Amino acid sequence: MTESTNTQQPQADVNGTKQDESKSEQADLPIDGPVDPSVFGEDAQESEDDGIFSINIESLTGSTFKLQIAKADSAIEIKQLLAECVETCYITSYELTVDGVKLDDYSEISDYEGIVPDAVIKMHSTLYDDKAARMHVHRTRDLLESNIEELYLSITTFEKEAKEPVPSYPSIGDAPGEPHVDLAAALNCDTEFQFGTGTEKKNKSSNKKKKGDEKQKQSSINIIESTHSEQDTRHLFPADSFSLKSMDTYLQCTTGRPLPKCVNDISMSGWNPPTGGRKLRGDLFYLQIETLEGKQHQVTATPSGFFINSTRNQQQFIPTPMGGGKQYNSQTLLGLLWEISPLFRQEFPKLLSARVKKNPFQVTPVPFPVKKWFDLPPKQVYRHSYTTEQEQRQNRDPMHHEWNEEYQSCKELASGTIEEKIIRDRTLFKIHCDFVDAATFGAKAVVDGQLLPVNPIDPQPNQVYIHNNIFYSFADDNYKKPKEEQTKSQSPLSSIKSTPTSNARPGAEGMPPIDQHAYKNSENDMRGVIAFNGADVRGVHTLTSAIVDYRGRRVIAQSIIPGILQGDQGSKHVYGSIDEGVTFSHDDKYQELIKQVCDKLHLKKHQVKDKEGAPHAIYCPGETKGIVGSDGRFYVLDLVRITPKDVNFLDQHTAIYRPELIKSYVQHLRSKDSSIDASQISFNPDAFSTFELADDEESIQKDQQAVRDVGEYLMGVVIPNFIKEVKSQELTLLDGVSLVSVLHEKGINVRYVGEICKIAAKENVQHLVDLCEREMMVRACQREFNKMLREISNHQFAHSIEHFLNALFNNYHHQQDKRASSSSHVMHITQEYLVEAMIQHSAAQYKHQLTQERIHRILPMMGTLRAFCLRVGLQIVAKDYQFATNTALINVNDILGLEPVVKHSAPQSSSAQGLLEVGRQQLLMAHMESAFDLLSQAIVMLQQVKGPMNVQVANCFSYLATILFHANDIPQAILHHYKSLIINKRVLGIDSAASCQVHQLLGMMCHNVGQSEFGLKHFLRARYLLELICGFDHPDMATIVTNISMMYQDLGDHAMSVKFLQQALRINESVLGAEHFQTGQTHHALAITYSLDREFRLAVDHERKAHKIFRLHFGDKDQRMVDSAQWLQHLTLSAVQQQHLLNQEDKSAMQTIKNLNDLIKKGALSQQESEMVQKEILQKMPQEILDMLGNDNNKQPQSSTQQTQEKKKKKKKQNK
């Protein structure tokens, strides 16, 4: 066994208790020569300074091994680490002691004086109860049956191995040793290449002994050998074609090869439950186990462990231990299997070895799993026993959470020091992850009809549900119901009110009910919760919440305010209005708390009138309300408008500015006048709202003008700057996800994509226009799709989805298939109907006029199908889909399922985010040492708070890879990029835009160190993903195929190099224009490539075009223009010389043939000898001369005899 703390396989605990990887990297980083560790600050010093140290664990197997812990860890976190160690992964019922003192599960390590570096902590077995025994069985089944990416195990560092076997606790054999990290190992770390080519690539360098010093290791960079089959990438990502079917191999290699099977079945026995008498004797439950040998055993679970009873058939139950010979019993179920099954003893170590060989990041749990929109068809597996998902969840976590109490208690934790901030942020994040998981499960149960509503007599859209202490309600648009049934609030408060609320606010006659905007208001409320949480004012509490879109329904999941279900007796309304402005409540204590939050959010104090006309001073919008729960905490609800109304879209009821825009505008004002204090800049959230303001007219006009100024700043500065960055390719946008993410970061709402299209079209940024119009189309189709699903029965889903997709993409409809069209809600869906819906929706929502021509150009593309599936949560089979008119695109067997799409208010770590942002800025300024220091601290803090599976950690790894590359540590640079790639795939999806960009970075890095065959593989994969995401016509595609051309050129395949450069030229001319400077660069690259093949005429033509384009953009004095002129002169001279040489060789060859013919006439040379000499001469001639001699298709010139015969034939034809 070897150490687990190495740079290639870091500890990847989702709770962040072990993160020593970056520290080892800091110590080894060579930046511009030797580096003093002191320049990196305290984080580069000994780990004890950070509260991280090593202890020894004396396990129940008899072995002792090392474990790294932090002072802030608790015993429960040590147990989590032991569950990930190979040696102790199967042990669940035990306690920990140090010097005879038992460790409390939730006490910090620092509370025990005996726990110091190298202290010994002992494991002691404890008795099972029913819950603990069931959890032990569940853990054992996880080890034996779960997929390889669902369970993480780490290598153990033995201080002392077990000398003799310990009953019940078998010691597992040696795990693989630590691999030697050199360039060959780094290049071969991506097993997908090996799996895709069908070749298991062996690490030749890692099997050799380490010889010499570091210089000798670096000398091996340029001599890595690889076989032809290893370089062949056609099996996985073909260079000449695109096929979604190619993802089959990719999906298989991401899933991994089948794990060794250790047991046939472990299930609950039919003899359950134990009788009353057997319970008094200690029987907890009974299991039925079938080993690989085919033998069945009935096992009894008791507080002391498991034993095989004497039952042998289904007629008679014999509870006593099996008699005769050895009695099999063990404290662990795995120990019992180890005793009774020789094949289990043989296969289980192989299983653990296969799990350990995986990169930790490939098996570390993801906080918010991302479902693939395409997958392999699932295989239906017969199971001897079946447990529902609800039962499985109860086995894993049998307790019901008090979500609100857990969440609010964590928010009240101290946060004065960095350590306290990390503990608080980590605990908040962990609780939020658990809440989102439970909320998603509950929302699915609500939509599937598995839960009973609290108010069953109300109309279905008004029904609310409570499950696992989570409150569920619907937020669907387009639902028409009688006016007397309309309600406004989606919060738990509305469900307990005895009288219905008013449908209109004062001064808003005829205003539509809020239910018509519930879908969008739910997102605005989520945004308000995130903003209030970011302000982080003690004493102000929000509800943890999640939005779940599933099967056409939007479900809001919230924690429950204590006492709110008991009405006024349990909770008290102390701020704002709960009746839509009829009355207002006020309390100076809570008004001061609200003021602290609103000062940070730039919200202005203003006055509104109630129904009687009395003024009330408030900070928040009129509909925001404050409630004091029975726990004494102050909760703020209905944060649907924490920013002012958007003056550019006043016709849209829910249109408000984004908080990022307000922040950007404040910075913009301060950049113009540094004397302005940010706290003095505030906005009235009720300006242009339906609430009647009580301020004087001058103040109202001033407030409205301030809001207009924000809109002018957005239209005149933010959007044009965004388009300028996209046009200059400072921003790379590949799909709708990346587009929406960047827009939101810049404070631009998605409804502005119509305005962006207009400006982008004028600026000739066609790929941005395509991307924005595709996003409009997909959102319009999502609206119609959800409406269809809400109006049909569950048994019609599959055929209705098939009908919808075929109508949308291929205008195809099964005329004789009545299964989908049996519902009137599906029959009307045709391509014409959907196209008209897109046009109307884009005009109303985005103020953009889509045309049928544009729609039919963007629709039949894989990127559009992908975007739609991701948007609605649809999962389909990975196969080739033919986009053609009047043919079926998909059938019901291609539909794998509908998955929920979840939005939530994940807590952020401001400290870690600040370190990441400053480190990135330092990297942009080329301050490598300070950048490395800050990014290393950021990656440690992020992993401690959120674990390694998040986008910010992936970005840190990419930034660190850049620094390591500049420091000439190539193997570590490639490994860091590979870690970033794994994280992006698991967090964002295997076909995400971020994964495509990391593949490009890896390809360039491999190319720069002379490994073009590996670089080619990464670029081919990037090309495949980009074509899948957004199609072929994109500026990034031109960059990728240009780089692929360079790879082929380095590998000596000039024909493929020219082919890809011609593709790049076509893309640049189509997307950017014939006179764009990148088009000129492609012409220049083609000229160089043609010159390598001595095609100087073609080279001169392309270089002349490049020269003209460069002059247009840069002028005559630019260095690029000078270089192009020199190349043009050189190529022209080469072309002239080549032509002159061809002319000379042509004359010489013709004279030689003439002399041979003269010798034949004189009889000095026979005809046969003359033809042989001519043939030898012609074979040695260059192809250019043969072409000039008039020989098409590489044919040789005719001999004199052949010429005479041809003349005779021509004369005969003329005579005839």
Automatic annotation (TrEMBL):
Residues 1-47, 196-234, 481-511, 1182-1216 are annotated as: Disordered. InterPro entries: CLU-central, CLU_dom, CLU_N, CLU_prot, GSKIP_dom, GSKIP_dom_sf, TPR-like_helical_dom_sf, TPR_rpt. Residues 377-650 form the Clu domain. It holds the Pfam family TPR_10. Residues 1-17, 488-504 have a biased composition (Polar residues). GO terms for cellular component: cytoplasm. This is Clustered mitochondria protein. It comes from Acrasis kona.
